Amino acid sequence: TTRYSYALPLEMIYLTPLLSWKPYNIRDDAPQQVIADHGRRNGGSTADKAYNGTNFKFYYHTPVEFYSSGRVDKDPADTAKAGAGVLDKSGQVRMMSSSGVRIRTPEIEGVGVVRTRYPIMPVHGEGAPVWKELNAMKEMTMHMNRYASLFQERPGQMSSNGSATDLQGLLHFQMSLTHMDPPGEHNHDFYINSEELDELKRGVHIMVTSSLDMGHEHELELVYRRGRVKILRCDKLTACWDGHSMFPTEAKS
Questions:
Q1: Percent of all residues in the chain with a pLDDT value above 70, rounded to a whole number
Q2: Nearest-CA neighbor of 95 among 66, 128, 127?
Q3: C-alpha–C-alpha distance, residues 58 and 43, integer Å
Q4: If you average pLDDT over residues 110-139, what whole number do you get?
Q5: Mean pLDDT within 125-153
Q6: Residues 143-180: pLDDT tens digits?
Q7: CB–CB of 86/74 below 8 Å?
Q8: Of 236, 240, 239, 140, whose CA–CA distance to 183 is shortest?
């Protein structure tokens, strides 16, 4: 089976009144064979070489004198001609500039150069070592309890008034050891701070995530019952699926 991946370029485009401004009222629905006269007309400055009208593909409606320099410099990324002779309805040659979307317009008197196309740059960092390291750090920072076993030192937490609390303010709990196989003998740790303990004592339920052990962690709903912290639900279940007790023990440092 053949598989393909695609990279779709994205671009932001600003439209201007030049798209609809037609000061010489040049025909804009001429068939291509009429405009180019089967290849005999190429947009030159003489009556026999100027385009005979325009259409959406040959969209020349802005007079070149509209721009300060009186001429139009071509950007390599723009696909239209820099300027072209076009016959108006009376047969007079008008030197016209493309009215389509440009990367930058030529200099406009009193306005300057206007950029109308902006590429949306892709992110190429995905899969690179730095990208992996940053995402791993983000995951650990956002789920500290889950990855507590990976930290060399347990990071401090912030109190409600914005000041940092030291490690003494953190309460370390351990879930009971289980021998269920699978997943095998293991336990988990989780941490709460003193303010969270006070909330538990006031009857508030709080949610924490256990450390990652044996390839999994637990989402714990904690309550305070009969003078101790209790796990009310483990992964939304009233009994932990791999045999941990619903009464964790506080680890002593």
A1: 83
A2: 66
A3: 10
A4: 85
A5: 79
A6: 776 676 677 666 655 544 555 444 556 788 999 999 98
A7: no
A8: 240
Q: Which residues pair with 237 in a beta bridge?
A: 234
Distance between the two ends of the chain, CA-based, in angstroms? 58
Please check whether residue 186 is in contact with residue 194, taking contact to mean a CB–CB distance below 8 angstroms. Answer: no
Q: What is the pLDDT of residue 92?
A: 93
Look at residue 151 and give its three-state secondary structure. coil
Alpha-carbon distance of 251 to 113, in angstroms, equals 69
CA distances from 213 to 78, 160, 173 (A): 58, 30, 15
Token reading at 12? 């932001």
Q: What pLDDT shows up at residue 163?
A: 52
Length of the chain: 253
Q: 44: which 2 tokens?
A: 């030159």
Whether the CB-CB separation of 103 and 117 falls below 8 Å is answered with yes
Q: Report the C-alpha gap between 86 and 59 in whole angstroms.
A: 10
Question: Tokens 């796990």 appear where?
Answer: 231
Residue type, 30: A
